[in-house]
Each structure stands twice: as structure tokens, then as C-alpha cells.
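mind reviewing this fold:
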Amino acid sequence: MTLEVLLSKASFVLGSLWKLRVNIDGFKSENSDELVTQASIGRSFQLLDSLKIDFNNKLIIDRVQVRLLEDDYICWFKFSELTHNASKIDSWKSEFLTEEKIFTRIPKILAWAKAAKKTSNEYLWGGTTGPNFDCSGFVQSAFASSGIWIPRDAYQQEKFCKNVSLNIESLSEKLIPGDLIFFGSSEKCTHVGLHIENGFYIHSSGVSNGHNGIEIDGLFHPNLGKIASFYRSQFRSAGRVISCYQSGKL
């Protein structure tokens, strides 16, 4: 029987792989408190940088750079929160799923998203583990709930998906449940929603132009509200998830 090795200063090896035993926040840099993502229990990561330790073996900076293996997302964890809360693993490999297999999981993905909406929530930049999400964290978590990993950020998700349409006028004929709808400027995608049916999509939006949380809006309803109208004006494209993310493929 192999003994479980828990992450600590003593077991720290640059480049080694680990699996989380707790939920944890991911930050923008070693000196920033800006939340950029969250990782849930069971997610795997690689240590990318050495610990900053003084001559007395004390941490100078309580951060370590990691790469989340499911989506290649790079962020910084607090090492104090990782200590004894991650188990060493020898390897990790993404699951291969066909487009047909993914399609069969869409009903469960949509059910998860609707259940998340019913839970008290608000918009949280970087939110990924719930109940508070940002737009792309919500969509990523919806697919992850059914074992399908997609990239973390909205612009990455747009690039990853198979394009369905760039034209909103013909979109209604092409959308199917589970498609992703992307919004933003002509330069960059900044928002994403998950299509339910008939042009209605569920998304987590912020305070300034949104609902401050998870809500359902429509693209084609004749009486679009202020928020739905805003996002319709920001439409960029629609895409379809046809595979699990594979490391290095973005």
C-alpha cells in the first residue's frame, strides 16, 4: 500500500503534481490579492516555481505559482493554505470524450446551471467554485460538473469552441442547447452565457451592466429588457463544445 504524501516544505519538489483536498483561491500574482480563479477539491496542479524561503526556513512570500492541469490555467496559491491540503500524484491525463458523448451530458449540465441560479449568489470576479461566479467560471463549472473540462476565461472558451455562427440574424436556426454565446467588443470576448433553448441563455453577470449574479436572458425575445438588450448589442459569436480540453491545445 502506497502512503499518501501531503504537500509541505519538506515534500515540495519543483514540477511535481498534486491533487487538492480543499477548495482554494487562485491569485493574479505572488504580490496581488486579485482573485482570478478558484480550484475545487479534486483538481490537480503542477508546482511551477520554488518557494521564497529565508535562512531560517520561513516563507518570505506566502504564494506559489501553479498550473491547473485541467485547463492549463496559471495562478498563485497561498502556500499556507496548500500545506497538508494537497496529495502527491504521479501523473494526470485529460479524459477523451467524443462530441456525441458530450451531447448526452448537456441536459445534466443545464440542470446544474439552473440549480446554481436557485442558490443565493452574486457576481464574483474569479469565482469558480460557487455559489458566487464570474461568467466564464460559471460556464466552466457547469461543464466540469459533468466531467467535461473547457478553458477558464471567456476569450479562451470562444477560441476553444467549434464556431456555430458569427451572425446574430441567422443564429436562431443554428443554436442548440448547451452552446455557448459570446459577447464583447470587436477586439476581444469579455462575457459568455450558456444557451438553454430558443435563444434563452443563463449567465453570471456583474453589477454595472448585469444582474449581479446568475440569471436567464434572451437574445430574440421581442420585449428585451435593458440587460438583455445590452448583451445583444455586444454579441460576438456562438460556439459548441465538442471535446474536453487537452493540455497545450489552446
In short: Residues 99-118 form the longest helix (20 residues). The radius of gyration is 19 Å. The helical segments are 79-82, 99-118, 135-144, 154-160, 226-233. The chain is about 20% helix and 30% strand.
